């Protein structure tokens, strides 16, 4: 399995820590504002907003907080104006990284991202230098409470392209536009899932075969994810289970 996928699953399980610090809420609220600003405040007519709304509800963001964020996005309430800016770079061991941000000051955010790379053995890259190695996909992570045959029976008809065994979980992938209907089909069939998100999947992975490289790469990823302006971090590393267990310990 992909070491990065497993690390993402571990990070997902630690999501309660983010909630306690308010970071996850803050990031989701920004995403709601930008989605509403760019596509309007009608959840039924704005697919991106509908996805962000569902993510916020899944994370237990209060409805009044969601509604205020949407109103700030549409201009009904005053608020800070955020813009979407993506950065690309390389972590140690040549691992490709894409960082998606929502910022009210791109100069500050860009300087912070550059500093994280340069102080931790990585480097920024020119736009396009890294992104060609990734493809945007819908990804659903599910616990193994359902058999492969039962899952495929529902998922294939709903637009799923691939099913992978990730050890303790299943990973379904779909085209970005098919994710909402895939999610709806799983819910209708009462099939539980841990997460359903749009993500960037790498076309090939960089294997990290020793604990030192793994720790260096994961430190960069963690520092980037902890930045207030950073919404998503994607990377193409693959850490064997044995090495990942050493890093976690």
Structure characterization notes:
It is a single chain. This protein has ten helices and ten strands. By secondary structure, the chain is an alpha+beta fold. The chain folds into three domains: 3-74, Arc Repressor Mutant, subunit A (Orthogonal Bundle); 83-132 and 204-248, YebC, transcriptional regulation domain (Alpha-Beta Plaits, 2-Layer Sandwich), CATH 3.30.70.980; 134-202, YebC, transcriptional regulation domain (Alpha-Beta Plaits, 2-Layer Sandwich), CATH 3.30.70.980. The strands form three sheets. A four-stranded antiparallel β-sheet has the order 3-1-2-9. The chain has a four-stranded antiparallel β-sheet with strand order 5-6-4-7, covered by helices on one side. Helix 3 (23-39) packs antiparallel against helix 4. The longest helix is centred in the N-terminal third of the chain and has 17 residues, at 23-39. The radius of gyration is 18 Å and the shape is globular. The model has no long low-confidence stretch (mean pLDDT 88).
Question: In brief, what are we looking at here?
Answer:
The protein is an alpha+beta fold. The protein has helices at 3-13, 15-21, 23-39, 47-58, 63-74, 106-119, 148-155, 179-188, 211-226, 241-248; strands at 83-91, 95-103, 123-125, 134-143, 160-165, 169-174, 195-202, 206-207, 230-235, 237-238.
């Amino acid at each position: 399995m992909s070491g990065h996928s497993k690390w993402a699953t571990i990070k997902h399980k630690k999501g309660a820590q983010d909630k306690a610090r308010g970071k996850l809420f803050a990031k989701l609220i920004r995403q709601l504002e930008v989605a509403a600003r760019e596509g309007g405040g009608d959840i039924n007519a704005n697919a991106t907003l509908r996805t962000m709304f569902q993510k916020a509800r899944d994370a237990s963001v209060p409805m009044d907080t969601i509604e205020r964020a949407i109103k700030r996005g549409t201009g009904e309430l005053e608020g800070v104006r955020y813009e979407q800016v993506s950065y690309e770079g390389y972590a140690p061991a040549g691992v490709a990284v894409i960082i998606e941000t929502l910022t009210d000051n791109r100069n500050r955010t860009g300087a912070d991202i550059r500093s994280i790379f340069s102080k931790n053995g990585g480097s920024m890259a020119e736009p396009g230098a890294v992104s060609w190695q990734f493809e945007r996909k819908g990804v659903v992570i599910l616990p193994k409470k359902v058999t492969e045959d039962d899952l495929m029976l529902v998922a294939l008809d709903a637009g799923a392209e691939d099913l992978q065994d990730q050890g303790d979980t299943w990973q379904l992938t779909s085209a970005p536009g098919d994710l909402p209907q895939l999610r709806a089909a799983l819910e209708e069939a009462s099939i539980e899932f841990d997460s359903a998100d749009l993500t960037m999947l790498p076309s090939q992975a960089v294997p990290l075969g020793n604990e030192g490289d793994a720790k260096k790469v994961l430190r960069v990823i963690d520092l980037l994810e902890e930045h207030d302006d950073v919404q998503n971090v994607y990377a193409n590393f693959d850490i064997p289970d044995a090495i990942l267990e050493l890093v976690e310990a």
